[in-house]
Amino acid sequence: MTALEFGYQIDNLTSSLKPYALKLTKDGEKANDLLQDTVFKAYSNRDKFQVGTNLKAWMYTIMRNTFITNYQRMVRRNTFIDTTENNHFINSSSVTIENQAKGNFVMNDINMALDGLKDMYKIPFNMYFRGFKYHEIADKLEIPIGTVKNRIHIARKELKKGLQVYAN
């Protein structure tokens, strides 16, 4: 295939590559840049294309790989490493300091919700929570296994209702 034929086929494919570039970048300008990089790489590496294979798939692969490479470069460029003794990531947002106040409030609310349950629901639920199997709870409390399952289900439902403020 001559360079002119190859160029003509690539030009015909650019209209179908544009939506894929938009899907990857979510930005019109960046999509145009990605499309331009893809076409440039395809022209530069046309000797690697095997005639008779799917040119469209080859172009999509080039575009995807170009996008991934550019994204990785951007991530590396935006990560700053503190060269002090501790080697902390400066722009890392995953490092936060929390005190135990929120956890204490949550545990207090959970305990209050548990205390609000009737004993017939609370006892099987606590046993299950501590690791007892349904049949062990049924044997210990001398009630049918179906009743154990039902009471645990009701306890969960009541706890979920009582702790709805933590649903998010």
UniProtKB/TrEMBL annotation:
The keyword Cell membrane is assigned to this record: no
Domain RNA polymerase sigma factor 70 region 4 type as annotated: residue spans: 110-159
The alphabetical list of record keywords is: Sigma factor, Transcription, Transcription regulation
GO terms assigned for molecular function:
DNA binding; sigma factor activity
- Please give the InterPro entries that the UniProt record associates with this protein: RNA_pol_sigma-70-like, RNA_pol_sigma-70_dom, RNA_pol_sigma70_r2, RNA_pol_sigma70_r4_t2, RNA_pol_sigma_r2, RNA_pol_sigma_r3/r4-like, WH-like_DNA-bd_sf
The Gene Ontology biological process annotation of the record reads:
DNA-templated transcription initiation
Q: Which Pfam families match?
A: Sigma70_r2, Sigma70_r4_2
Q: Which Gene3D superfamilies match?
A: 1.10.1740.10, Winged helix-like DNA-binding domain superfamily/Winged helix DNA-binding domain
Q: Where is the RNA polymerase sigma-70 region domain?
A: 17-73
| PANTHER family per UniProt | RNA POLYMERASE ECF-TYPE SIGMA FACTO, RNA POLYMERASE SIGMA FACTOR RFAY-RELATED
Protein family according to the UniProt entry: Belongs to the sigma-70 factor family. ECF subfamily.
Q: This chain belongs to which protein, by name? A: RNA polymerase sigma-70 factor, ECF subfamily
